[in-house]
Amino acid sequence: MRLGLALGYWGRDPDPRHLELAQEAERLGYDSVWTAEAWGSDAFTALTWIAAHTSRIALGTGIAQMAARTPTATAMHALTLDHLSGGRMMLGLGLSGPQVVEGWYGRPFPQSPLTATREYVDVIRQVLRREGPVEVDGLFHPHPYRGTDGTGLGKPLKPITHPLRAELPILLGAEGPKNIAQTTRIADGWLPLYWSPMRTDVYRASLADASEGFRIAPMARAVVCDDVTEGLLPVKAMLGFYIGGMGHAARNFHADLMARMGFEEEARRVQDLFLQGRRDEAVHAVPDAFADEISLVGPRERIAERLELWRAGPVTDLLVTAPDRDTLRVLAELNS
């Protein structure tokens, strides 16, 4: 199981620790470092900055939101950074949800998310392989565009710049069972939002068709500390925000996922509290048991025991959100 460092997206300001942590992860032998975006900082710019200050570690977007860019624009970002970094780029993509797509990006959430994702990946693959002009007779991402509001003058094009790698890895952040199953067919890997090494059966059917070499790369909060309860608070805060704030009451993929993992009543309680504006109560309503299952928190000996559960399952890459260099070092030592 490879280790990666997941830096996430910025909060109110740039996090001055991110570059230092990325460089430390590279020094410790971590395989990859990942950036993200929500509705603030973008994933590619921060990753390019890290690329310029490292030399070996692989670079991933975990995740870049599809609604933020056309698929050809995303392909341009990926092929450019792949060249600049000497072939270290991995493209992690996610569809996000209706609240973000329509509220932040000002565009409709696709009625058929699987079709939209499949077309998006198809366009990127065509750009990167550069076997001919990009042509997709698609519902969401037609190339060329032939809508009635167009000029009719568009023509198929292929990238001027020759991509460094035709098979640059593409990973998808998918949550629903059908979306995960499609991911095994059209992508090189999957970026789970929550992963419990104690509940791998939740995903077994969806992963049945995964080919050899398919990456399963969940993100997990990791921190070496004496007080487990205190160490879990950032995990519970994250879960409270995602389950309560990253979706509508009637359509929240994150809450649905927690429910499928055996915590349905708790997920709805967290969601209700958050939507009522009772955010502190929502965070405290997140079960410690669930937060603990999807993270690595506690003294070194406890983390060592729990890390073996992750290593025993199908996970190929553990992407840790670690707040300090000591935690990074301990995980590297335990995973060696």
Short description:
With 336 residues, the protein is an alpha/beta fold. It has helices spanning 18-28, 43-52, 71-84, 98-103, 113-129, 177-186, 201-204, 228-245, 253-275, 279-285, 288-293, 300-312, 325-335; strands at 2-8, 32-35, 58-61, 64-65, 89-94, 170-173, 189-190, 215-216, 219-224, 296-298, 317-321.
Notes on the protein architecture:
The protein has 336 residues and is of the alpha/beta class. The model has no long low-confidence stretch (mean pLDDT 93).
What is the arithmetic mean of pLDDT?
Answer: 93
Radius of gyration (CA) equals 20 Å
Q: Give the beta-strand count.
A: 11
Largest sheet: 11 strands, parallel
Number of helices: 13
- The helix content is 40-55%
Large-scale geometry = globular
- Ranges with pLDDT <50 over ≥5 residues? none
Gap between N and C termini, in Å? Answer: 9 Å
Strand content: 5-15%
- Please identify the structural class as seen in this structure: alpha/beta
Name its key features.
F420_OxRdatse_Rv3520c_pred; 13% strand; 45% helix; 13 helices; globular; 336 residues; eleven-stranded parallel β-sheet; 11 strands; LLM class F420-dependent oxidoreductase; alpha/beta
